[in-house]
Specification:
single chain, 2 domains, binds ligand ISC, 13-stranded mixed sheet
Amino acid sequence: MTRTAASAESAVQALTVETTPLDDVRQLIPFLDPRQPLLWLRRGEGIAGVGEAVRLEFTGPRRIADAADAWRELAAAATVTDPVRLPGTGLVAFGSFAFADESEQASVLIVPSLVIGRRGGRSWVTRISAGDAGGVERADAGAAAAPKPTPFGPEFRLTMAPGRLSAAGYGEAVAAAVDRIATGEVGKVVLARELRAHLPAEADVRRALVELALGYSECWTFAVDGFVGASPETLVRVIAGRVDAQVLAGTAARGADADADARAADTLRASRKDRAEHTFAVDSVLESLRGHTGALETSAPFTLKLPNLWHLATDVAGTLADGSSALDLVAALHPTAAVAGTPREAALALIRELEPFDRGRYAGPTGWIGADGSGEWAIALRSAQLAPDGDLTAYAGGGIVADSDPVLEVAETTMKFRPIVEAFG
Ligand SMILES: C=C(O[C@H]1C=CC=C(C(=O)O)[C@@H]1O)C(=O)O
């Protein structure tokens, strides 16, 4: 684990945090840094971060557990004034974790210096500084650091090209996975492919975030450390002692008209192949959450409509039983069978063998954590990582089971790339 920013010497920084109500702020994205946005947004509500008061980096198999421990220490040492008391007020960090234990991509928790938030029609600003911000600084803090939106940079359009696994190569990997499933080595494995582009230095990333947030308003639009996307899948939320998740696995194209669309949803609901793929994912979530929660309620699987496709979905909800933080639950859950497979270790080994690239933070947990352990985390799907040199890598994958068809699986990844391809294209 490395600590950068503010003070590298002190083991735990004593942060001073002050939340104040704001008049309703309807648009959060214009407040963000054009190249380093920090965002968590759904249905027009969420949090936007500016600057970095603290940045914590983690790698390796214990990256999420280490982050959960580091966060507890940081939160315990902070002095927080929060009269608003909503999820996302007070001390928060944005986080994004690499999918794989062996990933070269750093996992991060970033505490911004300024957070602007909106929830339930109420808005606020939180200022976070290292050390005691009392006296003179505190007296004029409101006037000195009033958050300001900035105009967007010019429009841009990128063309995305195949990455290290082409569409044809992906089809071959799917066929190889189906063969391996036939041997009984795994029941399900999730394979992905990449698309790549280069973002010019002057391009304003907020333009892509606006597209994602408007086009996929029911999804979690996120931006953390250059990693952006609009994910439909809630890995876990912990709010006021309640735990919930929405498991997604099983996908179908939208129909061309209303009748065809309804038929597509019916076919997905009835599909044995998709039900099998879905059950693996639900079981993995229930198994990981049990032990941390009271009895878990699950909905029957239902079809979830997104602009680009249908998913099979199951809602899971319960009450937190052991005082775990949202990050503790993320550590217990990741990677679910929606993004790895079943059995988990064998599926991860097969992913390492068949995918010729590091997934980075794709399919990893991304979200935010609060001082009291509350938080909202998505599985980072429909996403792309922007490197400091402007290279952009987008990812999409799908669950492979015994009767998966390589041609259909390639088409499914094309549908899943749409949010990112259209936001940057
Ligand atoms: C792995 C992805 O989606 C997962 C989530 C929902 C449906 C999925 C599927 O039907 O294969 C995948 O499990 C992705 O979007 O890259």
